[in-house]
Design goal:
By secondary structure, the chain is α+β, with helices and mostly antiparallel strands. The protein has five helices and 16 strands. α2 (151-161) crosses α5.
Amino acid sequence: MTKYQVADIKFEFNYNFDNYFKNNIEDYIIEDSSLINHKIRVKLVNELALPYGNIFGKQNPYTITNEDKRIIFFKKKNQVSILMKHDHDYKNIEIFLNQNLIKNLPQTEYIMSGIMFLELAMHLGYLPIHATAISISNEAVLFSAPSGTGKSTHANYWKQLYPETIFINDDKPLINIENNELYVYGSPFSGEHRINKNIKTKLKAIVLLKQGIDNKIEVSNINEIIPELIKNTLNPKLESSWNKIIPLIEKIYDNIPVLKLHATNSKESVKEIYNYLKQYKIKF
């Protein structure tokens, strides 16, 4: 299997289809095989048996947790269409796709391997946040919002107005602490447009993007920040992962300006937040 590094996460990964990985994942390939403790394998099968154990959940996805592993599976037409399993340290992650039940195998492979990679990242203490992350003048700004709000469109306006803008990740960038500083990292799992770059950049601000009839900026209320961050975070499935990412959320709360931008679908909204962010000594 080919070896990759995303942030400080080194892992082996095999996949079957190039549709979502070609011209995307190559930038993360490494030759160094030291300290690779995690493997992600995607396998195509013609049939999947219902796994044995106490099943939790009344609809997709279902889970079974045993002493040595956790199993997540999806059913279609009363048959198992997708099954994923991992040990509790995420050292071995296996994803099985029933090719007789899944219409779009390349897309499903990309989505499911992304889900399991992000779970691995959270297990290792990284915070994946639903946002578009850009870097400008080597400083990172995150635009966080639910799907369909227009964060990618807003970020594209940045690129048009300020060509030096770099997209770190267009869907779920990773955040972590290094030397008591918060950094944002790119990864090849970056949504349907697969826009990302293998860089790390200091986090300087988070903008909660809201649709508006005019452009208005507010400093987020003290009681809003943590709930908003949690709402836009990929929710961990394990308590141990929550214990690792809560300190990151608190670090953001204590050190990073979190702003609310009611934005029109226009370049003027970018100019508004661009000028406002200068208050926080962001170099651009």
